[in-house]
Every structure is written in C-alpha cells, then in structure tokens.
Write a structure and sequence with these properties.
This protein is an alpha+beta fold and about 280 residues long. The chain is built from seven helices and 15 strands. Strands 2, 3, 4, 5, 6, 7, 8 and 9 form an eight-stranded mixed sheet that branches. Strands 1, 10, 11, 12, 13, 14 and 15 form a seven-stranded mixed sheet that branches. Strand 14 and strand 15 form a beta hairpin. The protein is globular, with a radius of gyration of 26 Å.
Length: about 280
Amino acid sequence: MTNMMRPVLLSFSMLAFAGAGYAAQDNAKQQQNAASGGSMMKSQSSQRGMQGNAVSVQQFKDMKVVGQQGDEVGEISDVVLNLANHRVQAVVLESGGWFGIGGNNYAFPMSDFKRGKQQDQLVLNMSKEQLKNKQGFEKSKWPGMDDQYWTQSGKASAGGTQFGGKQQQAAQQGQLNLIRASELKGKQVQDKSGQQVGEVQDVIIGLNGEMRSLVVDMKDGGQAHIPAKQLSRGTGDNLVVGMNAEQIRSQAKQSKQSYNRGAAAGGASSDNAAKGR
C-alpha cells in the first residue's frame, strides 16, 4: 500500500465509524421517543379513566400511595367490598418487604385516603412511622371475611366511622357480606331468572367509598355496567342481578354506543390537534 492511499483509507474508516455512531444515536432517540410516547398515551388514558370521583378497582390499585409527608408508604393490594350495603369496607395496603418478599398488609377505610396533587396519586392520612404501629397481617394470612378485623378496619383513623346506624349495627351482629375485589373478578353473573349472562371483569368504586357498578363481560359480546345495588349472592360462586337478561343486553349495547361516541370524539380531537400543528 502506498503512502498516498493510507490517508484516503483512514478518512473512509473515520466516516464509516462516525456514520455508525450517528445511526446508533438516531435509533436510540427513536426508541426513547417511542417509549415516552407510549408512556404518555398510557398516562393520558389513565387520567381520562380516573376523572371525576369514580375509578375501576384496577385503576385504583395502580395509583401511587404516599403518606402525609409525601413519601411512598406502599401500594394497594386489594379492596374489600361489602355486598350488604354496596360500599367499600376496606382498602388493603401492602407495605414493607423487599422485592415482594416480607412486609405486611394493612386495612383502611376509604375515608383515610384523598387524591394527591397528581392524577394517579393517593394520600394516606397517616405517616410512615404511624403505619409501623398499626395492626396488620401477613400477606399470605388474610383474616376471614367474617373476622372482626374488618369491622375495626371500617373505622376512620382520624376519628369517627365510615359507616354508622344500621350499617354499623349489622357489622356488630356479624351480618357483613364481604368479598375481595380480586375474588369477585371472574365470577359468573346470572339474571334474576337464573340465566347465565356473563362474568365480572372489574368493579367501579367511588372515592367516597361507594360501590358504583360491576363491569360484566357478556356471553354474547360487549360489556355491561350493572348498578351495584342490583347485585346479590346466588348459589355457589354465582352472583345474581335484579334484572332480566334482555335488560342487561340493552345496557351493554348502550355502553358500547357510548364508548364508540367517545372514541370518535377523541379521534376527531386528535385530528384537529394534528392539523393545528
């Protein structure tokens, strides 16, 4: 190789190396933009789902829980529902441990939580230090749904109770009809004549402790939002709603039409925003 060729080959090598470097940077930037775009879409979807005073239990469990000083205190493990008065009996917080090992569960009334400054944030009316002194239970050793622990967990930490009068009397007499939201999911739903109509997909709850509705995946397609007050226990693991199958199908059809209108409106807004840019 002549001395004149060496600088030329060296220049080509440097250009190739630089090009590879720019390509790697560009790919990394594209991946980062895609990831942030996905996170943004997920965040926007989550925020749309949690506007107002009602959330699905799944959305509720995904919310970040902080204490009075703003430090993270744990995450929501489950929600205990009272089918007798159609309210949230307790919100179960998992705290402590390391990478899912160890730690305890603690039950609180819904009134011990309030919305934080961020859409996906809940503030617990208790500090992290106070939480350490609260009676809890091991994650693998849940008290039975007829245990008095759940009666006590219905009392607000700041004084007073979340429920009173006849509801409190029913609790004292052991007439609570409790079930974990995680165990409610997947249960078969029957209409008032005993006909199977679908299964529970999720539960909509209010941040005031009200159990609003069941989200039911219908056997013949679609989803119905059935008012919680229509719900009662049937035989075995079945749930019964005080509506006939045709009423539930009609409700599912209305929900689908409402969803389609919302999706169309959202698409139009996105198009208009894109044109504005």
